[in-house]
């Protein structure tokens, strides 16, 4: 649905040319929710804005549904944009217009005849759950409600693609969840392809099928969300994943541990506890689970245990070797003392 | 003193309407030409949807050129142009020409800065939705800048009331003219004070009305 080929964007600043996006190629399939994560300044917003030519790439090609956007004339580009909705961190609603008028504007821009606008707006407001706010002004709405209006506006012309620029970053965790739920619903019900820019790995974990990690204008890692969470290769990716799968053990507990401390990771298709109990029966060691958690990433579980193992060092080593062949990942955090 | 005021009343009345006529005409011209000019200055700015350096530069230079000429000089400078347009150089109608010329760039700059107050993201969201430039101007910039446009019009009107007094010195008529003729040339303090009070009340009224409307249209 979206295909980006060798896109670069160079900004002219006082200190010279600064690359915002550096030779990025990626493709997003139809009906997919695609996440792009990175710290601020990584170029992810610029990349997203290149997808609807709010930012014109310096070099490269942008295809939406097979159409190369950079080759389009102004009017054709406007029409192409009508098939791509966009929502922003700052909502960007027109403060002098009511909720109804804000959504109507998108229809008006696409040349929808006046008689047909009202029904469509009511339909959209019902979808986002704001039927009762129709005549309110943006100043009267909460952040989550404003984002819902902007989603209604973005969906007005039945777009094929929805671009989300840090759409949940200004919202509290509860509201973020409800907005993500709405986006998921939109994706499932209408098959709209969604691209989400975010610095919150939680958002990616929650709804993205695939994701890319950006740093210094480049995509450094890309893949299905589950794979990224289960087998991150880049250190930045690991740091991002840490923010979700956080297993900080209390300092005191670490000090009191005398055995070998390890972190085990199980993929969804393996029953983690069964492997551990098999291991405990096969080797004369004692295992003590200090921490455990199962995260669901797109409905597939990812189990993580932190375990202390005590016993003869040679037996412990054998047990570790046994586990290494069976679990997804094993990392010794602290050796026996 | 009261007798003197009553005596001057008919002339004051004429002068008042002359002032209103001059200010009204030039204000209208400011809206008709200055407003689009200000919008043009804004939308051709860097990073906006009609970005154009040449247009921005040319319009900007014209605006600055007129704005840098002191009004009293502009008044004299534009006499041939006034004659061409109104076939006279005296009276409120003739004075309206140079007042209008001064009002256009004045209001244009105010419009530009009022439009700048709009969050660029709001305009970007409209671009992203595929709206045409005209639609963005009409449906986004205009309503969003409305409070600023109205208070800008208030500022322009009050400045024009001041300028119209200068226009009086070259035979434009109006309250300022009355004040100068009686108060300055004839040392008639009563007329002087009366006109000053009329001007104060007028300016207060315009300011109050402007603030009131600006507040009424502000939905923020």
Automatic annotation (TrEMBL), chain A:
One of its GO terms (cellular component) is plasma membrane. One of its GO terms (molecular function) is ATP hydrolysis activity. It holds the Pfam family NIL. Keywords: Amino-acid transport, ATP-binding, Cell membrane, Membrane, Nucleotide-binding, Translocase, Transport. SUPFAM superfamilies: ACT-like, P-loop containing nucleoside triphosphate hydrolases. Belongs to the ABC transporter superfamily. This is D-methionine transport system ATP-binding protein. It comes from Sediminibacillus albus.
Automatic annotation (TrEMBL), chain B:
Pfam families: BPD_transp_1. Residues 16-210 form the ABC transmembrane type-1 domain. This is D-methionine transport system permease protein. One of its GO terms (biological process) is D-methionine transmembrane transport. The lineage of its organism: Bacteria, Bacillati, Bacillota, Bacilli, Bacillales. The keyword Transcription does not apply. InterPro entries: AA_ABC_Transporter_Permease (IPR051322), MetI-like (IPR000515), MetI-like_sf (IPR035906). It comes from Sediminibacillus albus. Its main location: membrane. It is found in: Cell membrane. GO terms for cellular component: plasma membrane. Keywords: Cell membrane, Membrane, Transmembrane, Transmembrane helix, Transport. The chain crosses the membrane at residues 20-43, 55-78, 90-108, 148-170, 190-210. Belongs to the binding-protein-dependent transport system permease family. CysTW subfamily. It is a multi-pass membrane protein.
């Amino acid at each position: 649905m979206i295909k980006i080929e060798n896109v670069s964007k160079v900004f002219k600043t006082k200190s010279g040319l600064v690359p915002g996006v550096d030779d990025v190629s990626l493709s997003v399939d139809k009906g997919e929710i695609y996440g792009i994560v990175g710290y601020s300044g990584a170029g992810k917003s610029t990349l997203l804005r290149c997808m609807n030519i709010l930012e014109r790439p310096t070099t490269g090609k942008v295809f939406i549904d097979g159409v190369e956007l950079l080759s389009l004339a102004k009017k054709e580009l406007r029409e192409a944009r009508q098939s791509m909705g966009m929502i922003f961190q700052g909502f960007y609603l027109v403060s002098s217009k009511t909720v109804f008028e804000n959504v109507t504007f998108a229809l008006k821009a696409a040349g929808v005849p006046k008689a047909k606008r009202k029904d469509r707006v009511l339909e959209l407001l019902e979808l986002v759950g704001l039927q009762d706010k129709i005549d309110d002004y943006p100043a009267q709405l909460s952040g989550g409600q404003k984002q819902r209006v902007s989603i209604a506006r973005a969906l007005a012309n039945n777009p094929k693609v929805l671009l989300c620029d840090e759409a949940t970053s200004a919202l509290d965790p509860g509201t973020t969840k409800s907005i993500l739920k709405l986006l998921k619903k939109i994706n499932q019900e209408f098959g709209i392809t969604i691209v989400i820019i975010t610095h919150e790995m939680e958002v990616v974990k929650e709804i993205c099928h695939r994701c890319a990690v950006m740093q210094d204008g480049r995509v450094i890692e890309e893949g299905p969300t589950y794979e990224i969470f289960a087998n991150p290769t880049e250190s930045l990716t690991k740091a991002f994943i840490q923010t979700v799968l956080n297993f900080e053990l209390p300092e005191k507990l670490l000090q009191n541990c005398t055995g070998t401390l390890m972190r085990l990771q199980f993929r969804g298709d393996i029953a983690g506890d069964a492997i551990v109990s098999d291991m405990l029966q096969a080797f004369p060691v004692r295992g003590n689970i200090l921490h455990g958690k199962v995260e669901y990433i797109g409905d597939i579980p990812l189990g993580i245990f932190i375990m202390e193992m005590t016993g003869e060092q040679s037996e412990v080593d054998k047990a570790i070797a046994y586990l290494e062949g069976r679990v997804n990942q094993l990392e010794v955090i602290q050796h026996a003392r | 003193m009261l007798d003197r005021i009553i005596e001057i009343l008919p002339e004051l009345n004429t002068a008042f309407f002359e002032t209103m006529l001059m200010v009204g005409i030039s204000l209208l011209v400011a809206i008709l030409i200055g407003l689009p000019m200000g919008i043009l200055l804004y939308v051709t700015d860097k990073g906006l949807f009609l970005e154009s350096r040449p247009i921005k530069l040319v319009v900007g230079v014209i605006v600055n050129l007129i704005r840098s000429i002191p009004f009293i000089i502009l008044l004299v400078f534009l006499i041939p142009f006034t004659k061409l347009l109104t076939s006279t150089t005296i009276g409120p109608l003739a004075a309206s020409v140079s007042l209008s010329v001064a009002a256009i760039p004045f209001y244009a700059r105010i419009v530009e800065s009022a439009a700048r107050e709009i969050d660029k993201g709001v305009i970007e969201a409209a671009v992203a939705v595929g709206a045409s430039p005209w639609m963005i101007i009409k449906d986004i910039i205009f309503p969003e800048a409305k409070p600023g446009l109205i208070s800008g019009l208030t500022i322009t009107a009050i400045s024009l009331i001041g300028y119209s007094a200068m226009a009086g010195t070259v035979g434009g008529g109006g309250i300022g003219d009355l004040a100068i003729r009686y108060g300055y040339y004839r040392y008639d303090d009563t007329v002087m004070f009366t006109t000053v009070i009329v001007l104060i009340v007028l300016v207060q009224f315009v300011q109050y009305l402007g603030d009131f409307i600006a507040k009424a249209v502000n939905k923020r």
